[in-house]
């Protein structure tokens, strides 16, 4: 399976490392900042790096030719419809909530603010609306009393994201397609002043 990874920062790097150990071909890494640690890790591994022309949008030209799957990991850019069409299986991202709950950029913070006893993660298909595509995999974790958003992310949600991404990619390698369950809009939460979500 040929993968184009779109991402940034520490989660981008840990996703890159997981993919490299997972017997897939990482054909390109797309970043919004050429100085990002993900760009440095990709270059060190001999993987082609492309810097987005527009930090808020990934275009079809930025996706590697013959890509089977686009994977996003800590990317705040929207992957265009044309870019998704350039990939055989489209694209998937990880969102650190039980979608459709807590869509948007501050999912882990909202989990803590709302006092949710359970948090979770979702692998979802990239779509026109942020965090609204069909679910490919989902799992949950308990929230510890007094835990901060950062602690919850580092202890449970980041490792969960890597495990779920690996699970969906393995499924795709075996079946040539990805699971897809439409999100139930009646459970979407409405949080005030949330900016567009990260993938």
UniProtKB/TrEMBL annotation:
Q: Which SUPFAM superfamilies match?
A: Formyltransferase (SSF53328)
**One of the record's GO cellular component terms:** cytosol
Ranges for the Formyl transferase N-terminal domain? 52-157
First-tier enzyme category under EC:
transferase
Q: What GO MF annotations does this protein's record show?
A: methionyl-tRNA formyltransferase activity
Q: Which InterPro entries match?
A: Formyl_transf_N, Formyl_transf_N_sf
Q: Which UniProt keywords apply?
A: Transferase
Q: Per the record's keyword annotation, is Transferase included, yes or no?
A: yes
Q: Give a Pfam family name.
A: Formyl_trans_N
Q: Which domain of life is it from?
A: Bacteria
Q: What is its EC number?
A: 2.1.2.9
PANTHER family (UniProt xref): METHIONYL-TRNA FORMYLTRANSFERASE (PTHR11138), METHIONYL-TRNA FORMYLTRANSFERASE, MITOCHONDRIAL (PTHR11138:SF5)
Q: What is this protein called?
A: Methionyl-tRNA formyltransferase
